[in-house]
């Protein structure tokens, strides 16, 4: 015949087991909520703000070799537009040798700050070669810092 088994469960063991099972269920629910691939409205809003960003905001400098002279071209970017283009530390001797350099950079800077793209920049006939060198350098800097 069958032997009768008597199982004695203490109330303290049942309480601890219930608490651990409850904590396990709460932990599984939290993990499920945290790692569910659905997007919240906050995430969608931040993603739409990031898609509006065109550039990595900052001030960038590049050396530009013209003849024997080296110029430092500085580009200031916001997240959505070009703020300015400047020549930094322009030597008097370089400014004397290349008198169209400074006004050309200012003109390009004004056009870019007005919202024109690199393809829309108007090149004047009197300084077209100088502008081509500067536009190429600025274009290279902008493409390096686009998002």
Determine the fraction of residues in helical runs and give it as a percent range. Answer: 40-55%
Largest sheet: 3 strands, antiparallel
| Unreliable runs | none
Average pLDDT confidence is 83
Compressed to H and E, one letter per element, the order equals HHEEEHHH
| Structural class by sheet pairing and helices | alpha+beta
Your description of this structure?
- There is one protein chain.
- The protein is of the alpha+beta class.
- It has a domain at 58-144.
- It is 49% helix and 17% strand.
- It has a 3-stranded antiparallel β-sheet.
- α4 (101-113) crosses α5.
- The longest helix has 24 residues, at 11-34.
- 13% of the residues are buried.
- The model has no long low-confidence stretch (mean pLDDT 83).
Relevant terms:
5 helices; alpha+beta; rod-shaped; 17% strand
Brief summary of the model shown:
The chain is α+β, with helices and mostly antiparallel strands. Helix content is 49%, strand content 17%.
Give the helices and strands, then pairings.
Layout: H1 11-34, H2 41-52, E1 58-66, E2 69-77, E3 82-88, H3 92-97, H4 101-113, H5 128-144
Antiparallel strand pairs: 1-2, 2-3
Helix pairs in contact: 4-5
């Amino acid at each position: 015949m069958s032997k009768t088994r008597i199982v004695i469960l203490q109330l303290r063991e049942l309480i601890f087991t219930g608490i651990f099972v409850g904590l396990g269920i709460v932990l599984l629910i939290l993990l499920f909520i945290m790692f569910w691939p659905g997007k919240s409205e906050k995430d969608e809003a931040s993603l739409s703000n990031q898609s509006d960003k065109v550039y990595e905001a900052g001030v960038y400098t590049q050396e530009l070799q013209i003849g024997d002279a080296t110029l430092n071209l500085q580009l200031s970017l916001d997240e959505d537009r070009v703020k300015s283009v400047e020549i930094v530390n322009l030597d008097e001797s370089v400014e004397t040798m290349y008198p169209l350099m400074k006004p050309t950079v200012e003109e390009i800077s004004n056009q870019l700050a007005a919202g024109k793209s690199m393809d829309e920049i108007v090149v004047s006939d009197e300084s077209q070669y100088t502008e081509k060198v500067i536009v190429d350098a600025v274009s290279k800097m902008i493409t390096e810092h686009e998002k």
